[in-house]
Design goal:
There is one protein chain. The longest helix is centred in the C-terminal third of the chain and has 20 residues, at 225-244. Strand 11 (248-253) and strand 12 form a beta hairpin. Helix content is 28%, strand content 28%. With 273 residues, it is an alpha+beta fold. The strands form three sheets. Strands 1-2-3-4-5-7-6 form a seven-stranded mixed beta sheet, sandwiched between helices. It has a three-stranded antiparallel beta sheet with strand order 10-12-11. A two-stranded antiparallel ribbon has the order 8-9.
């Protein structure tokens, strides 16, 4: 596999196809980035790059634009997707590393992107592998988008996260078995089989608190939409409450094999934006 810039109309069309495979085609995904904008981004300091297999088939891509935030030059990584058949091969991480290398050459040391806080896989990658920090929690940042296969039922709440490209946060994984020692879980209660079920947030004060999320929100949306919406409502209330009170996300507890997935928030000082 190689990662290289998108340079031809065929590359741009392959990228558009992968967007539709990931987020839905036609009216189901209104936010696709077409060939013209992918080309323009590469001309004016953005990044539009793909991961290609040994037959030159695109198996992943990343797209972003550069600008300013909090008074500093930065890059906004707007899209990253990996073909379903090529997942769990660290391609997403390699695409991020490609972005990082390109931006450091340009002396840009901050990168931002959004992701859904309820997606446990992405939480683990972003916090425990890449070392990001939360910049902001935004409810329905892209609108309701109920026609999208990814965002239907639960809306488009997102974390805006910041990656310090020259000094990413190094975090030590936490054993999920020690969750009771990490602080109170404020938005869930124990359920059958060791799982956590959503509950109205208690919003108690403590030096460290835990905000739980489900193991697989996409599967839950299909099986139990009511519970999926309850997770969204409870986590939205909890994150907005604690972030407004000066807490920040310290790390993420849980992995692909864990029954329990939680963000740990702390009241101690955070890295400046």
């Amino acid at each position: 596999m190689i990662i290289r810039p998108l340079t031809s109309h065929e590359d741009y069309l392959a990228c558009l196809t992968l967007q539709e495979e990931t987020w839905g085609g036609g009216t189901a995904f209104r936010e696709s980035v077409g060939p013209a904008m992918l080309m323009v981004a590469g001309k004016v300091g953005g990044i539009a790059a793909g991961a290609f297999d040994d037959r030159d088939n695109m198996v992943g891509f990343v797209y972003g634009i550069s600008g300013w935030r909090h008074g500093h030059p930065c890059h906004w990584s707007h899209m990253l997707a990996v073909s379903p058949a090529a997942r769990d091969r660290d391609i997403g991480r390699r695409l991020k590393d490609y972005q990082r290398a390109q931006l450091l050459e340009r002396r840009i040391t901050r990168m931002y992107w959004t992701y859904d806080p309820l997606v446990a896989r992405n939480a683990h990658i972003n916090f425990m592998k890449l070392g990001v920090d939360v910049d902001e929690y935004v409810p329905d940042i892209y609108g309701r988008n109920d026609e999208s296969t990814v965002d239907s039922v639960i809306g488009t709440d997102r974390f805006i996260v910041r990656w310090a490209l020259d000094n990413p946060i190094r975090r030590v994984p936490i054993d999920p078995g020690t969750v009771p020692d990490q602080g109170p879980i404020v938005n869930a209660r124990p359920g059958p089989g060791g799982r956590l079920d959503p509950a109205p947030p208690t919003l108690e004060d403590a030096p460290d608190i835990l905000i739980a999320i489900p193991r697989d929100i996409q599967d839950l949306k299909v099986r139990d939409p009511h519970t999926a919406r309850a997770w969204r409502a409870g986590t939205r209330t909890a994150f907005q409450h604690y972030l407004a009170r000066g807490y920040h996300v310290r790390d993420f507890v849980g992995s692909a094999t864990s029954a329990m997935h939680c963000y740990r928030l702390t009241a101690s000082p955070r890295t400046p934006p």
